[in-house]
């Protein structure tokens, strides 16, 4: 027995006109004679037989009366023929779009189970193109270019190396898909300001406790918070953006995240939502070295710093020389000690190797 693994999909299709031609041969009719009986011109009848003109409901009824069978038969045959033609045309289009794959992190998306795994050989590539179009929710690579690649002009990056637009767009799309699953009320700035204050008190909790609470608080204010694994070459730690005028999104990747970085990054993105233009997409990377001179980024950094450790306490930071000092200070201002350590290291008040035991590395199973 021959085992088949793929359905039979021939690259040819038979138009209903083939059956019409067979009937004419059996009856020894010419196309002109059929045209006369149908009430059509010879030219239109020829187009009908050659599959160039479609069988309409009216034509199907005429064929039923002149040649037999039923109108439903002729319409079904026509529909199957047109669908087969569309499949062939689709295959041709997908083959023509294969080069688009070079712009996207295909293997990474396969490894994360976002699209099915397969060998990237020639015969499989059209199918991969189709899966990626479905993933992005677009009809063609040109439409992807309009919807995603063109978003690059709105990106406000924290470093020049974030240049792989395909990887960035894939990561952004993953956030969109998660956000689409969640309903929330219209954005309210006062509610979000209140939510952010409440979320600050959650920094002392373990991830399995703070994550669902902060997501709920954000959602009640019209801001969706999603956690999406990083995509290689995107170099994105977080993003703040508006999905529409009434719904904001904060998306975090946990890329290189310990809890001190996580909290600074979250409040940095929250600052973008509270302070900045809805038209921009703020892509951020923690401690990215050569940062772009962006006033919104500086504002978000400063807002996050002062929100976590208010300016009235900054004078005490230089006096924190021991773990006990850090714990006592963190308790007094109601934040996790790791955040204090991160600030001390960032401001060069202690060596980067000191007190890292306070920090907790976050993983997705901790926070999901």
Molecular structure report:
The chain has helices at residues 16-27, 31-38, 42-49, 57-66, 71-96, 106-111, 125-136, 141-147, 165-180, 189-200, 207-220, 259-275, 295-308, 311-317, 323-333, 337-346, 364-367; strands at 155-156, 223-227, 238-244, 247-252, 281-284. With 368 residues, it is of the alpha/beta class. The protein has three domains: 16-96, lambda repressor-like DNA-binding domains (434 Repressor (Amino-terminal Domain)), CATH 1.10.260.40; 98-136, no CATH class; 151-367, no CATH class. A five-stranded mixed beta sheet has the order 1-5-3-4-2. Helix 2 (31-38) crosses helix 3, helix 4 packs across helix 5 (71-96) and helix 15 packs across helix 16 (337-346). Mean pLDDT is 89; it is low at 1-10 and 287-292.
Adjacency order of strands in the biggest sheet: 1-5-3-4-2
What gross morphology would you assign?
Answer: elongated
**Whole-number mean pLDDT:** 89
Q: Can you count the beta strands?
A: 5
Quick tags:
434 Repressor (Amino-terminal Domain), 368 residues, disordered N terminus, alpha/beta, 53% helix
How are the elements arranged and paired?
Elements: H1 16-27, H2 31-38, H3 42-49, H4 57-66, H5 71-96, H6 106-111, H7 125-136, H8 141-147, E1 155-156, H9 165-180, H10 189-200, H11 207-220, E2 223-227, E3 238-244, E4 247-252, H12 259-275, E5 281-284, H13 295-308, H14 311-317, H15 323-333, H16 337-346, H17 364-367
Parallel strand pairs: 1-5, 2-4
Antiparallel strand pairs: 3-4, 3-5
Helix pairs in contact: 2-3, 4-5, 5-7, 10-11, 10-12, 12-13, 12-16, 15-16
């Amino acid at each position: 027995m021959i085992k088949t693994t793929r359905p039979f999909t021939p690259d040819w299709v038979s138009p209903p006109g083939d059956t019409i031609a067979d009937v004419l041969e059996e009856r020894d009719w010419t196309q002109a004679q059929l045209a006369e009986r149908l009430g059509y011109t010879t030219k239109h009848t020829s187009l009908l037989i050659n599959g160039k003109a479609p069988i309409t409901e009216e034509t199907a009824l005429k064929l039923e009366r002149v040649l037999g069978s039923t109108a439903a038969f002729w319409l079904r045959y026509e529909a199957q023929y047109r669908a087969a033609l569309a499949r062939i045309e689709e295959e041709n289009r997908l083959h023509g779009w294969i080069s688009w794959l070079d712009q996207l992190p295909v293997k990474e998306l396969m490894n994360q189970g976002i699209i099915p795994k397969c060998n990237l050989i020639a015969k499989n590539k059209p199918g991969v193109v189709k899966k990626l179009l479905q993933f992005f929710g677009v009809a063609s690579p040109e439409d992807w270019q309009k919807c995603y690649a063109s978003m690059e002009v709105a990106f406000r990056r924290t470093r020049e190396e974030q240049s792989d637009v395909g990887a960035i767009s894939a990561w952004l799309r993953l956030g969109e898909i998660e956000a689409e699953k969640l309903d929330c009320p219209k954005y309210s700035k006062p509610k979000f300001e209140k939510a952010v204050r409440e979320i600050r008190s959650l920094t002392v909790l373990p991830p399995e406790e703070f994550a669902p609470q902060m997501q709920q608080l954000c959602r009640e204010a019209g801001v969706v918070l999603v956690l999406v694994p990083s995509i290689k070459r995107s170099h994105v730690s977080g993003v703040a953006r508006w999905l529409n005028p009434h719904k904001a999104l904060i998306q975090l990747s946990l890329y290189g995240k310990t809890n001190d970085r996580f909290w600074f990054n979250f409040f940095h993105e929250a600052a973008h939502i509270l302070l900045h233009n809805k038209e921009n997409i703020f892509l951020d990377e923690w401690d990215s070295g050569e940062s772009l001179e962006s006033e919104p980024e500086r504002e978000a950094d400063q807002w996050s710093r002062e929100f976590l450790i208010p300016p009235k306490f900054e004078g005490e930071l230089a006096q924190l020389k021991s773990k006990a000092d850090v714990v006592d200070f963190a308790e007094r201002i109601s934040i996790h000690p790791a955040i204090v350590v991160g600030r001390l290291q960032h401001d060069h008040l202690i060596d980067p190797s000191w007190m890292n035991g306070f920090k907790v590395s976050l993983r997705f199973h901790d926070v999901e």
